[in-house]
Design goal:
- The protein is α+β, with helices and mostly antiparallel strands and 278 residues long.
- It is built from nine helices and five strands; from the N terminus they run H-H-H-H-E-E-H-E-H-E-E-H-H-H.
- The chain is rod-shaped and about 130 Å long.
- The protein starts with a helix and ends with a helix.
- The mean pLDDT is 80.
């Protein structure tokens, strides 16, 4: 009777299997320690790019839990755009994986096994990809999907292993989100530094333009007076004319530089009255 109850009642069967694992070996303790080390390593790799971190996470989890297959997709902010994929992704295309995640989101499921599949289509996707458990995660602008296969000898993951895996996946989502925020912060700092450099360059250009324009005015005045005194018949008249032309050209360039670095004037909107219309 006890054996029949164990075989029929699924939660009791899982509890019995967990107890047998505790009694028959130290695999549970080994898996716990490896999962803990993986969590520590993930914290150390928090500054990695999202694609690189995800590509490291998927095979590492597969080795820790000794899964036969593990597939993972990481989605970008664009609709249905795959930013990265890792593991055994040949069973499903990125489009099918995104459709599977959309179904899980619509059904409000974070974890889904074959027995818990909400419809026949999801069950077929999981079965065709040799997936025992599908896990989705979403944190901030980062979202992804993991399809976990069975262990050796087609043994499913135990409850404690699934719980440890869920904790690692949640940490992955948080780490990817923090990595994205850090990348955005660094990009904002680079833009602010570049704007500061451009502002400083504008001030320097304006100062240099003023310093150049004043001597040019003096040179132009002196050359003009000399040209008038010597007259057009003088042999140096053509040279003086060339000097005046170059001075005018430099003056125009300096004026353009000043106009470029000068801050734009604010145009105040003045309401039109009867007098203004006239």
């Amino acid at each position: 009777l006890i054996i029949a109850l164990i075989l029929v009642y699924r939660p009791l069967r899982q509890r019995t299997a967990e107890a047998l694992r505790y009694l028959l070996g130290g695999r549970v303790h080994e898996t716990r320690e490896q999962a803990r080390q993986l969590a520590v390593q993930m914290s150390e790799h928090a500054n990695w790019p999202s694609a690189e971190l995800f590509g490291w996470f998927v095979p590492s989890v597969r080795d820790v839990f000794r899964m036969e297959t593990l597939s993972g997709w990481l989605w970008s902010s664009e609709p249905a755009a795959c930013a990265c994929q890792a593991g055994d992704v040949s069973q499903l295309t990125a489009k099918q994986a995104h459709a599977l995640q959309a179904r899980l989101v619509a059904c409000g499921l974070t974890v889904c096994s074959r027995l818990d599949a909400p419809d026949d289509e999801v069950h077929a996707w999981l079965e065709n990809s040799s997936t025992e458990i599908a896990i989705r995660f979403e944190r901030g602008g980062q979202s992804g999907l993991l399809l976990c296969g069975s262990q050796a000898w087609h043994q499913p993951l135990g409850e404690e292993q699934v719980s440890s895996l869920l904790l690692l996946v949640e940490q992955l989502g948080s780490t990817l989100h923090n990595s994205q925020l850090q990348a955005e912060r660094l990009a904002a700092e680079r833009r602010a530094l570049q704007n500061e450099k451009l502002s400083t360059l504008g001030l320097l250009a304006g100062s240099m333009a003023h310093e150049i324009k004043n001597p040019l005015s003096s040179i132009k005045t002196i050359v003009t007076v000399m040209s008038e005194q010597l007259g057009p018949a003088n042999p140096h008249a053509e040279d003086l004319r060339l000097v005046l032309g170059e001075v005018d050209r430099l003056g125009a360039t300096t004026s353009q530089l000043l106009d470029f670095v000068r801050p734009p004037r604010e145009v105040l909107a003045v309401p039109l009255t009867g007098a203004n219309r006239k």
